[in-house]
Amino acid sequence: MDTLINSIDDVLNESVLEQNGTRVLQLSPKEAGSVESCLPQLRAAIERAKPIYGGVLLRGFDALGAGGLDSFVSTFGQPLLSYEFGSTPRSKVEKGVYSSTEYPSDQWIDQHNEQSYTLKWPASIWFYCDIAANQGGATPVADSRVVYQRLDPALRRRFADKQVMYVRNYGNGLDLPWEQVFGTDERDEVEQYCRAHQIAYEWLDDGEALRTRQVCQSELRHPVTGETVWFNQAHLFHVSNLPPAVREALLEVVDEEYLPRNTCFGDGTPIDAAILDEIRAVYRDTMLSFDWQAADLVALDNVLMSHGRAPFSGKRRVLVAMTG
């Protein structure tokens, strides 16, 4: 082990980015080159650092591209995951590599742990900056351990007791169609998936539309470190997260029960918007943000670290891979 650690020091520079209680380890090469040129050292450094920091930024290496990202992430021994039961529009780029969420560039995407609105999520998520935006477009991160610690204990207990119910409506032309979310146009396959994943479902409009409900965790204990983290998307799915003008326009078209997505407590009682504002404020006060540089690669422990997206101008291409 000492020989490996010394070899890491020989080829990599290490520094720490820190802001608002969230930290990320930054690794850069002492001599310009590709990730393949120091792959054993990078793998050892990333695997050692992720449980401590929650995230690692690789900066200053040669560009990977989509194919290189797939190959590099695959060397860590976990298969790349498909984006099943997704909640946002993405495009498959290559094998296990996807585009990041394809929302309009002027929209902010709040902090979240990937697929924490389900009972099954990626262990790790990798972001690669293929093209950096002219302005903005950061992928802020926030330590989920710190978020948990900063939330009011009474709020945490209330969520832990009741959990979170996610209500989603598909096929009404307002959000993703169910065929895209479930990757099939066969209703039987959708129903099998829902039963296997403890998702309640009902078909509406003679099967043209679908509504699902799933009760999930509000917090989680990390399987390796044993630390408790805040782990849900109650604030992100809730109708109060929409810009006021968008919310008002939607509610003029459909009743609240037909909104594309919404959240309540696990027993079906409403979540007060003020509580969710409190959660959003804690995320904002815990975020670490840095500007992307082309060829940057960020590896996140998806349980320990949340992520989001800042608005941007100009062309931006950030690719995503998920493992575990």
TrEMBL record:
**An MF annotation (GO) of this entry:** dioxygenase activity
Named cofactor requirement(s): Fe(2+)
Q: Report domain TauD/TfdA-like positions.
A: 39-322
One Pfam family, short name: TauD
Q: Which organism encodes this protein?
A: Paraburkholderia acidicola
Alphabetized InterPro entries for the sequence: AlphaKG_dependent_hydroxylases, TauD-like_sf, TauD/TfdA-like
**From what superkingdom does this record's organism come?**
Bacteria
Query: Which keywords accompany this UniProt record?
Result: Antibiotic biosynthesis, Dioxygenase, Oxidoreductase
* Name recorded for this polypeptide: TauD/TfdA family dioxygenase
